[in-house]
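In the design runs reported in the main text, the only information available to the sequence generator was the tokenized backbone. The following block is the verbatim input for one such run; it is reproduced so that readers can re-run the procedure and compare outputs position by position.
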């Protein structure tokens, strides 16, 4: 009888153990492949670290806008150079072609739109078909696309040019900070659509910045040629306001993640503008207490050559080897391999400007953001720029110098570069996956 009871009691255990091949132990979901962070093209890996954020030299203008603060920054990627004219032009062309496909899909052929997904489900509204080529010279398509060009009375010598006022980028983002508020997390919230923000941004650079930034200065050739001429392809893009720089990062994120998804890959973190704590950490290149990306305190090398594109001496734009902007791979990189973290063009960061921000910023990934509204006073629309530019004196190209510009303004001396947060703690952790799956 005891043997019979023992046999009967073991039946459920055997049946449970055979179901789905389970072992009864906590082993995690099986069959998941090892994954390693791919290095984004044109970006360099920066390891996590801690440093003293703030001035490494005297406060020359006595502006009292920065203080020394110890902060820690997690690992991330950063563009090796400032975003170039040609790289930003890819964004402009994408917006141009998406507008053309939308027009052609409505007026010429439905082949320019995708109305069903891979499962045969209807897509509403339809998506753009990027595999259907645009023939700008065919009679039918040329007639439909005529609305994209300047009207006859606005043309110069009858030249047919795209109306850049129509190149608008529509994008969405999720306001995670608003969603994280306690009032937004109460029981009974219906959906997350209230946190999805839609925006439409004109993407074409303000090429007139070269003229309106300087009175009684001849810069018309730069306005006419700088953004589109091949001679300037590898120069930093300028005339970009803060919102345009952010829109570029969002577009770049969707471009990469859409491709990875189509190839069966895994999505990665979004591209974005750097926080000013990330920017300064990257600029220092591991030299934690030096005033310049190359160290210091000198701004010349052993041969007497200036080490950045700025305004040396008493206003001489020539002696440093530059004039306006220069090629993004000019001068020597810092210890992280980043070019022109001092001079050439100042760079947008993601942070709002506040003189007291260092007093209340957290010491973990220090960050202060504010989404300014159109109705806000100008002081609320200030964004931090870093690095100084070709028109700035030596103080502004120091690693710890902080200044600002208004988010809706575009200047011929401000550009930007993107960053991406590293997925994981550190790159060396990838090696442990091989021995401890």
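Verbatim output:
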């Amino acid at each position: 009888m005891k043997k019979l009871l023992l046999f009967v009691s073991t039946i459920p255990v055997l049946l449970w153990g055979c179901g789905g091949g389970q072992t009864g132990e906590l082993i995690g979901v099986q069959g998941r492949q090892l994954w390693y962070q791919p290095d984004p093209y044109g970006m360099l890996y920066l390891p996590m670290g801690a440093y003293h954020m703030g001035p490494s030299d005297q406060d020359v203008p006595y502006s009292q806008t920065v203080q020394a603060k110890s902060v820690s920054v997690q690992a991330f990627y950063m563009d090796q150079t400032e975003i170039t004219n040609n790289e930003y032009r890819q964004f402009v062309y994408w917006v141009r072609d998406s507008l053309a496909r939308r027009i052609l899909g409505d007026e010429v052929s439905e082949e320019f739109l995708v109305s069903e997904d891979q499962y045969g489900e209807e897509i509403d509204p339809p998506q753009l078909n990027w595999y259907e080529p645009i023939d700008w010279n065919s009679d039918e398509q040329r007639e439909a696309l005529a609305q994209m060009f300047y009207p006859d009375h606005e043309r110069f010598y009858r030249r047919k040019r795209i109306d850049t006022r129509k190149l608008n980028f529509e994008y969405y983002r999720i306001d995670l900070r608003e969603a994280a508020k306690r009032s937004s997390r109460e029981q009974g919230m219906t959906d997350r659509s209230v946190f999805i923000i839609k925006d439409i941004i004109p993407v074409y650079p303000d090429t007139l910045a070269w003229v309106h930034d300087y009175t009684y200065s001849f810069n018309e050739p730069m306005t006419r040629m700088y953004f589109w001429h091949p001679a300037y392809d590898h120069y930093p893009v300028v005339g970009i306001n803060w919102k345009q720089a952010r829109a570029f990062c969002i577009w770049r994120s969707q471009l990469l993640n859409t491709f990875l998804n189509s190839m069966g890959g895994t999505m990665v973190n979004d591209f974005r503008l750097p926080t000013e704590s990330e920017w300064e950490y990257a600029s220092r290149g591991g030299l934690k207490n030096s005033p310049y990306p190359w160290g210091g305190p000198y701004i010349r090398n052993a041969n007497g050559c200036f080490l950045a594109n700025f305004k040396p001496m008493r206003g001489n734009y020539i002696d440093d080897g530059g004039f306006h902007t220069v090629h993004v791979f000019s001068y020597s990189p810092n210890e992280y391999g980043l070019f022109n973290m001092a001079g050439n063009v100042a760079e947008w960061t993601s942070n709002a400007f506040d003189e007291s921000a260092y007093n209340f910023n957290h010491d973990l990934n220090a960050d202060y953001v504010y989404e300014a509204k159109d109705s806000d006073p100008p002081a609320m629309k200030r964004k931090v720029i870093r690095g100084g530019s070709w028109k700035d004196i030596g103080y502004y190209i120091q690693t710890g110098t902080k200044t600002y510009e208004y988010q809706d303004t575009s200047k011929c001396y401000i550009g930007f570069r993107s960053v991406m947060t590293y997925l994981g703690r550190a790159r060396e952790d990838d090696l442990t996956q091989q021995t401890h799956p």
